[in-house]
Amino acid sequence: MLQMEPEVADIIMHDELCLPDGLAFLRENLGRGGFDRAVIAACSNSPIEQSFKDKAVEVGLHPLHVEVANIREQCANIHGGVGQATEKAIRIVRGAVARVSRSSPSATRRVKVAKAALVIGGGIAGTQCALDIANAGFKVYLVEKQPSIGGTMAQLDKTFPTMDCSICIEGPRLSEAGRNRNITIIPNARVKSVEGRAGDFHVQVEVMASYVDPVKCNGCGACVDVCPVYQPNKYDVDLKPIKAIYSPFAQAVPLKYVINKDICIECGLCMKACGLAAIDLNDKPKSSELNVGAIVVATGAVPFDARRKPQYRYGEIDDVITNMEFERIICASGPTGGNMLKRNGEPSKRVAFIQCVGSRDEDGMEECSFYCCAGSMKEARLIVEHDPEAKVFIFYTELRAFGKGWEGLYTRCREDGIVFVRSRPSEVKLNPDTKRPVVVYEDTLSGVRSELEVDTVVLAVGIHPDEETRELARLLRIPVDETGFLEEAHAKMRPLESRVDGVFLAGTCHGPRDIVETVVEGTGAASLAINILSRDEIELPTVVAKVSEEKCTGCMRCEAACQYGAIFSQNGKAKVDDGICKGCGACASTCFQGAIDLEAWGREELLSQVLALVREE
Amino acid sequence: MTAPNIVTFLCWCSDSGADQAGVEGIEYPAGITPMRIPCSALLGTELIVKAFERGADGVIVSACKPSELRREAPSRVTEMRIEILRRLLEEVGIEPDRLQIAWISSQEGKKFADEVSEIARKIESLGPLRAKGVAQPV
After folding, report:
1. Domain encompassing residue A593
2. Which alpha helices (H) appear in chain B, and where do they start and end?
3. Is B21 on the interface with A (CB under 8 A)?
4. Within a domain: residue A375?
5. Is this complex scored with an ipTM above 0.90?
6. A295 and A412 co-located in one domain
7. Is A561 in contact with B45 (Cβ distance < 8 A)?
C-alpha cells in the first residue's frame, strides 16, 4: 500500500537493520542514489536512531532527512490482531514519509572554536578553574573586580574541619595562577557585554582606572609609606585602616598597587616616591575585547546584611559582630593581631554564636546557608584555642554536620566544653549597666526561657547573591532563582552548566557552598570548558526556531511563550539566540503570523504528517 | 463501527514512555496513532483543529508534567493552550473530552497504556466525530 504514496521511490526490506550486517546493508542502500530522504520503519527510536543517522551522514544525507518510524514498541508489540497492527503500521510510516518528504532543513553549521576561556571571578572557584584549564594547555582570562584575586577564602582565618590556615593554603594557588603563562589575570575589571555562542563568544571587559601602571609597578610599596591618607580596608571588613594607595593584603596576586581616587588628595607624594614612574593620576578606564570559546561564572556571593534582622541589634550594640568580622578579629594579621577583643579593647571571655541569621528564614533566604554550622564550630574552637578559659555558646536551629570530617569537629567542640543551645534567640539587648549584650532565648529542648549575658555576640550570617551577579546574569542571558542565585541548566544532571551552551557555573554564584565543594566545582567547570576548547569546531544545534523577518511583526508574543529566554527583540523583530534555544517550538505555535518555525518541524511538515495519520483509504 | 482514530502526540519523553508500554507488552487500542514531536509546546491550535477537521476522532497530547521546582517548563504552555482549546471545541459543538492531556514521563509505560485506554474508551463512547457532521473527510 505504501508503494502507492507518490513520494515513495523505493521500498527495501531487511530483517535486522540494527545488527552490524544490517547497518552495512543500510549504508550501502542509502548511498546508492535515486532518492534524497529515507524513512526507516523499525523499532524504538532512541538507541538505534543515531546509528541509522550516522550511516546516512556517512553517505552524504542530511541527518534530519532520515526519519525512524517506530512500528515495533508503539505498534506490533501491543496490538494482538495482525490486521489492525498492520493498518496502524502503514499509517505511522505514511506519516513519517509525509513529513520527511516536505522537510528542508538548513545545512548543518559549524563554529570555529576560539581556544581560550574566560573565567569571571577570581575567588577560589575561579582560580582553581583557571589553573585547571591553563594546565590543560589553553589560554585563560581571569577577570576579577577587586585589585587581587583570592575572594572570600582569602579573608578567612582558618578553614573547617581541618583548621588549616586559610590564606596559607589558598595563597600558593593564587601565586601559581599569577605565574602561569596561560593565565592572564585582569584585575579591577568587569564584564560589560557578551555576544556570540559556545565556541565563539565576544566579551567586552572594562578595566577600571587603577592609577598605577601594572607593567611598571613592581610592588615595592614605597608609595604606601609616604601616602598620608587612610581608608578602611574592605578586606578587613572595614575593621583596619589602609592607605589611599594600597594593595588589599600581603599575599595579593597580582601585587600591584591601586589608588582609591574617591579619597586621594592628589598630593603627589606617591609619584615622587615611586622610582619606576608607575603612577599616573590621570589614568582612565580601558576596554578590551576578548574572543573565547567558553565562559565560567565564578562570581561568588556576599554575606547577608545583618541589619535586616533588627532584633539582633547589629550596628547598634558594639559587641554584636558578624562571622566575617570575627574571622578578621581572630586572624593574626587582622585588626587586633588575633586577640579576641571587645570593641573597647578589653578581652572578650564569653562569646555567643547565633546561627541561621538570614538563612532558613522567610525574611532572609529560605535555604540553609550550608557552611555556617561548621563555620561557627570552627570559630568556637579558635576562641578556646586562643584562650582556654573563654566560654563559648552556640545557639543553633538544627546542627548540621554533614560534610567529611564535620562530625569530628562537633565532637571536638563538645570535648572543648563549647555549649550548644537549641534555640533561635528572639533578640539581643544591651545591659545598660555592664554595656554587655544579652541574648534572650528559649531553649527548645527544655522549654526554659532565659537570658545570657556575654562579651561578644557573633551572628552567623548566610550568604546571598549580589546585584552584580544579577546584572551579569542579564548580560549572559541566564536566569536567576528567587533568591537571585544563578540557575543551573538542570539541578541534578547538569549542575555546572547554565542554560546557555558554553557558559558554566562554579562556586557560590549558584548557591551556598563550602570551600571543598567550591574547589570541586572549579575543577568540574574547567573540564566542561576544556570539552569545548579541545575541539577545533563545534556543530550548532539544527533543531532550533527560525524567524522569518518578512512575516514577523515584532509583537513579541513568542518572547513571553519561550520558557528559556532565548528570544529577544532586535530592530523591531524577534530574534532567536540559538545558543539558548532548546528546540521546543513553544514560540512557533504561539506566533499568529506564522513567522516562526522550528527547523525540520515546521507548520507544513507537521500538518502533512497529521493529515497522513488521519487519512482514510 | 470502526475503532476511533486518535492522533496521539508524544513529546520526546512521553515517546519513551510509550516505548516502555511496548517493551512490557501492555495492550491498548490500535486507534492510538502515535506521532513523535520534539516537545508538546510545539502543538499549535491550528494543527489540532486540522486533525479534527480531517478525520481524527480524538487527540491526545502526551507530555512531561511541568516540574514543581523548575521555571523552564514548555509543557506549561501546552497545558494552558489545551485548556483553552477544549473550551473552544465545546463552542463549535465538539465534545471537549475528545482532546486530552496525559502527563507521561519516560518510565511510565503502564500509566501511558492505562491513560490512553481510558481516553480511547471515552472517545469511542462519543461515537465517530464525522457522524456528527463536523469533520470534513478529505
Report:
1. 540-599
2. 12-23, 45-53, 75-91, 109-126
3. yes
4. yes
5. yes
6. no
7. no
